[in-house]
Amino acid sequence: MLGGLSLLLMERLPQDLVVQRFLGSSYGLADVQLTWLVGAIAIATILGIVVRSDSWLRRYKYTWAAAGVGLLLLTFVLGSEINGQRLTLEFGPVSGQPSELLKVILVVFLAGYLSENRTLIVEQDTRLGPLRLPPLPYLAPMVAMWAIALGIVVVQRDLGAALLFFGVFLALVYAATGRISLVLIGFALFLLGSAGMASLFEHVRTRIDVWLDPFADPLGSGYQVIQALHAFARGGLLGVGLGAGLPEVGGRPPIPEIHTDFPFAALGEELGIVGLLAILGIYLVIVQRGLRIGVAAADDFRSLLAIGLALVIGIQAFIIAAGNLKVLPLTGVTLPFISYGGSSLLANGLVVGLLLALSDKGVEPPPPPGSPSRWRRLGRRGSG
After folding, report:
1. Cα-atom radius of gyration of the chain, to the nearest Å?
2. Of 138, 147, 142, 185, whose CA–CA distance to 166 is shortest?
3. The domain containing residue 27 runs over which residues?
4. What pTM does this model have?
């Protein structure tokens, strides 16, 4: 359903926003989006049918983590710079953002590490004055992996991916340990880091300034945010009708990056508040189903993996929706399954395919000695 809404939106937008040439033929925005959407559905279907073992994920978590960081480093060296951000690798006519794949790799690594060390992290404490923290040696590799990935995306100015990684990191740590103190400490560190980055990096400061007062520069840095607010205002409660939104103003889209960064605003104009709530409801269904898969999983690794994959989609949708509505500073992440972008669609297809595989009862049992996950025990207790 989300992909269908995306195709309807891309069809009504100017097709020259994206032009791909392949074998002498040119393809516009809707044609390219359809191609990537079919690829995403194919990936989800193949993974859901073929994958019968998760050992290739749990055993090689460090290898996956190293490959993901290496891919980002390769992007920093050889990537193409677009709008001041070096985020894209190009292979002939095909290009993509490795940070989309890294979000899946990060979840796999965190699920593997937390499932192996959950008992030690939960039951042992390191005292730091009045604070009781988990044993730092067990947290160090996990935090190092997260810090490396976060540092790279900050250097690349991909703040949306940095916020997504941070949110997934905190959510999985809480899911594995149940310690709200870790979330509060992480949130405090996030606020301190945000203040530090705003003082050090001009592009971070600009994003925050636009968030606080986009009307200070209505024809410059604040233009897109203001036009998005106007689109929501035109849509009102019920919208102007699907496909009847304002396609162009003076020969160009009212929001320059409407197909990537602002599809939520475009749909808000056409479907209104009611339609937006329905779209957010679809994302909540995906998250809820992923959490249920985690509850029913056979061991902690699969529980955390399913929970993390579901939260990747939910947190990413929240970040971009909040950015369009000026609840949060605007970031560069995409709206899952709706925004234009091949790497985003394929990565989200990978997420759904893994969730399908994890939910399939035919997947092999966990390696011995396997104990039922605490999520499964809680589910049984709640059903009793």
Report:
1. 21
2. 147
3. 2-230+282-383
4. 0.85
d(CA 136, CA 185) in angstroms, rounded, equals 14
Report phi then psi at 89, rounded to 5: -105, 135
The H or E element containing residue 90 is strand 85-91
In terms of Cβ atoms closer than 10 Å to its own Cβ (0-12, 13-18, 19+), residue 326 is middle
Residue 155: inside a domain: yes
Distances in Å between the Cα of 338 and the Cα atoms of 1, 6, 18, 161, 372 are: 10, 4, 15, 17, 37
Task: Give the dihedral of Cα atoms 343, 327, 280, 3; nearest 10 deg.
Answer: -30
271 within some domain = no
Structural domains counted in the chain: 1
Distance CA 228, CA 364 (A): 48
Neighbouring CB atoms inside 10 A of 369's CB total 5
- Do 48 and 356 form a contact (C-beta atoms < 8 A)? yes
Measured over the CA atoms of residue 208, residue 347, residue 171 and residue 133, the dihedral's sign is negative
pLDDT tens digits, 106-127: 899 888 888 887 776 666 666 6
Alpha carbon distance 255, 343 (integer Å): 22
State CA 36 to chain mean position distance. Answer: 17
E strand or H helix that includes residue 88: strand 85-91
Q: What are the tokens at 111?
A: 């699920």
Task: Report the DSSP beta bridge partners of residue 26.
Answer: 21
| 264 found inside a domain | no
Residue 346 resides in a domain: yes
Cβ-based neighbour number of residue 56 at 10 Å:
10
Quick one: tokens of 211?
Answer: 């968030």
Answer left, alpha or beta for residue 126, where phi above 0 means left and psi between -120 and 50 means alpha. beta
pLDDT at 384: 43
- Assess whether pLDDT exceeds 70 at residue 12: yes
Do residues 348 and 189 lie in contact, with contact meaning Cβ atoms separated by under 8 Å?
A: no
